């Protein structure tokens, strides 16, 4: 595939957006998603998907399963990195070949160990569509174009189909309506939601020096717009002044990125920090919850005995 370099060594290359505009939003959605994540919005898409995953904890059904496994509480950083890496692989290379296909297969094998309702899958899939679109409009160097939004939607619907999901909505508006109905039923105060959200905040706190860790929770909740979510995880938003400061700083960073292409270009899975697997030394097939790894190890031991 064609690759691009920074314009003048430090600016975003307009040829990337030009290629995106020339492609078909459905047939070429995998290539468009690669260009969006590797060049146009690499940092912003990662952050927006972190917020999207955090939002899923507001579902009592999703949170109950995550809480039951105990992975976020006991192996939080690994759980975070495994999820990030699997998603990054199929966003980078698509779902048809190579590492992307392997990542999607690994994810499906992991999910097969649990009884997960289709509407839970639909809800989580919707967050991966919705939150990046909203984030780009609010904080990135530019908003996604309508063409990019449609390709982004088509990409994730394609992922859902390859996860075996059925009755996937044909349009974003239809998806929005179905998820709103889902949230009315499932986004209610729930101790499991509170525990999983708190465990995830602790993961993020550990990324920062101790004097700054107290800023993580109010920063995260300052970005959440849905009152149902905040109530579901039994938290409170920070002051309006603090939330405004967080959002203003993100918008300023977006303005900087209009001029400076910060970071690797293109961004790839291997060019990002990996706390669990230093030097990115891992196999995609090992990216699964610890309790499943232990179950597999016991099965091997029993077979040998």
Question: What does this protein look like?
Answer:
With about 300 residues, the chain is mainly alpha-helical. Helix content is about 65%, strand content about 0%. The longest helix is centred in the middle third of the chain and has 22 residues, at about 120-140.
In short:
With 305 residues, the protein is mainly alpha-helical. It has 15 helices and no strands.
Helix share of residues? 55-70%
The SSE string, one letter per element, is HHHHHHHHHHHHHHH
Q: Quote the distance from N terminus to C terminus.
A: 49 Å
- Report strand %: under 5%
Number of strands: 0
From the alpha-carbon coordinates, what is the Rg to the nearest angstrom? Answer: 19 Å
Mean pLDDT: 95
Total number of helices: 15
Poorly predicted regions? none
Which features characterize this protein?
305 residues; mainly alpha; 15 helices
Detail the topology: elements first, then pairings:
Elements lengths: L13 H9 L6 H12 L1 H15 L3 H10 L1 H4 L1 H18 L4 H14 L6 H22 L6 H17 L9 H15 L4 H15 L10 H7 L4 H6 L7 H20 L30 H15 L1
Helix pairs in contact: 1-2, 2-3, 2-9, 3-8, 4-11, 6-7, 8-9, 8-10, 12-14
């Amino acid at each position: 595939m064609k690759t691009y370099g920074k314009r003048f060594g430090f600016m975003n290359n307009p040829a990337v957006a030009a290629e995106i505009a020339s492609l078909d939003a459905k047939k070429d959605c995998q290539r468009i998603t690669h260009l969006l994540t590797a060049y146009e919005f690499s940092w912003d898409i990662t952050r927006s998907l972190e917020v999207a995953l955090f939002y899923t904890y507001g579902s009592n059904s999703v949170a109950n399963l995550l809480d039951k496994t105990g992975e976020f509480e006991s192996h939080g950083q690994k759980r975070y990195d495994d999820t990030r890496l699997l998603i990054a692989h199929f966003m980078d290379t698509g779902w048809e070949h190579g590492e992307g296909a392997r990542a999607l297969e690994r994810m499906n094998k992991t999910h097969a160990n649990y009884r997960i309702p289709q509407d839970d899958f639909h809800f989580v899939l919707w967050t991966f569509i919705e939150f990046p679109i909203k984030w780009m409009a609010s904080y990135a160097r530019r908003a996604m174009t309508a063409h990019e939004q449609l390709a982004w939607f088509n990409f994730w619907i394609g992922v859902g189909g390859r996860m075996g999901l059925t009755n996937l909505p044909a349009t974003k508006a239809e998806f929005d309506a179905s998820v709103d109905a889902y949230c009315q039923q499932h986004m209610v105060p729930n101790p499991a939601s509170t525990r999983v959200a708190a465990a995830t905040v602790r993961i993020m706190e550990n990324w920062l020096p101790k004097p700054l860790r107290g800023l993580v929770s109010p920063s995260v909740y300052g970005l959440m717009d849905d009152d149902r979510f905040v109530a579901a995880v039994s938290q409170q938003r920070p002051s309006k002044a603090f939330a405004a400061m967080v959002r203003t700083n993100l918008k300023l960073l977006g303005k900087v990125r209009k001029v400076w292409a910060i970071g690797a270009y293109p961004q790839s899975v291997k060019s990002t920090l990996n706390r669990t697997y230093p030097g990115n030394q891992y196999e995609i097939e090992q990216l699964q919850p610890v309790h499943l790894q232990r179950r597999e190890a016991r099965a091997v031991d029993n077979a040998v005995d």
